[in-house]
């Protein structure tokens, strides 16, 4: 699985100190741009917010579909983009997929943006 934030976590934490500590390397900037691009879409940002605000910090895709005036395949695409960027974790339970936000991924973004 190509997971941008997992790649960053797999490397030493020294790869991504706060932006104010030193300039990003080109490879780090390329990986992080994919993560920020995933969050740059309003629907995706709202999906992350809805999942975080759900009971237990987890939401079934069946519950997320009703929150938007979008087709189920479109919502699934947005969830896949967030998952591929390392921002969401997922479990399949029967017919449904349940999503939760990767707390380590959000913490890493917070650390990166710390001034």
Notes on the structure:
The protein has six helices and three strands, in the order αααβααββα. The protein is 54% helix and 13% strand. It has a three-stranded antiparallel β-sheet with strand order 1-3-2. It has one domain: Arc Repressor Mutant, subunit A (Orthogonal Bundle), CATH 1.10.10. The chain is elongated and about 45 Å long. It starts with a helix and ends with a helix.
Key terms for this structure?
115 residues, alpha+beta, Arc Repressor Mutant, subunit A, three-stranded antiparallel beta sheet, 6 helices, 3 strands, elongated
Reconstruct the topology from this structure.
Elements: H1 4-10, H2 26-39, H3 42-53, E1 58-60, H4 61-65, H5 72-84, E2 88-93, E3 96-101, H6 103-113
Antiparallel strand pairs: 1-3, 2-3
Helix pairs in contact: 1-2, 3-5
Total of domains: 1
Largest sheet: 3 strands, antiparallel
* Strand proportion: 5-15%
According to CATH, the fold-level topology is Arc Repressor Mutant, subunit A
How many helices does DSSP assign? 6
CATH first level: Mainly Alpha
- Strand neighbour order, sheet with most strands: 1-3-2
Specify Rg, calculated over alpha carbons: 15 Å
Give the % helix: 40-55%
Got a strand count? 3
Structural class assignment: alpha+beta
Shape: elongated
Report how far the terminal alpha carbons are from each other: 31 Å
Mean pLDDT over all positions: 84
Report the CATH architecture.
Orthogonal Bundle
Regions with pLDDT < 50 over 5+ consecutive residues?
6-15
User: What sequence of helices (H) and strands (E) makes up the elements?
Assistant: HHHEHHEEH
CATH superfamily: Winged helix-like DNA-binding domain superfamily/Winged helix DNA-binding domain
């Amino acid at each position: 699985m190509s997971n941008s934030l997992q790649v960053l976590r797999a490397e030493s934490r020294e790869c991504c100190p706060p932006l104010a500590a030193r300039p990003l390397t080109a490879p780090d900037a390329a990986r992080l741009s994919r993560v920020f691009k995933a969050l740059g879409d309003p629907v995706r940002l709202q999906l992350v917010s809805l999942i975080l605000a759900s009971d237990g910090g987890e939401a079934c895709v069946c519950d997320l579909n009703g929150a938007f005036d979008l087709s189920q395949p479109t919502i699934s695409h947005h969830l896949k983009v967030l998952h591929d960027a390392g921002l969401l974790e997922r479990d399949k339970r029967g017919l449904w997929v349940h999503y939760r936000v990767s707390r380590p991924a959000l913490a890493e973004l917070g650390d990166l943006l710390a001034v």
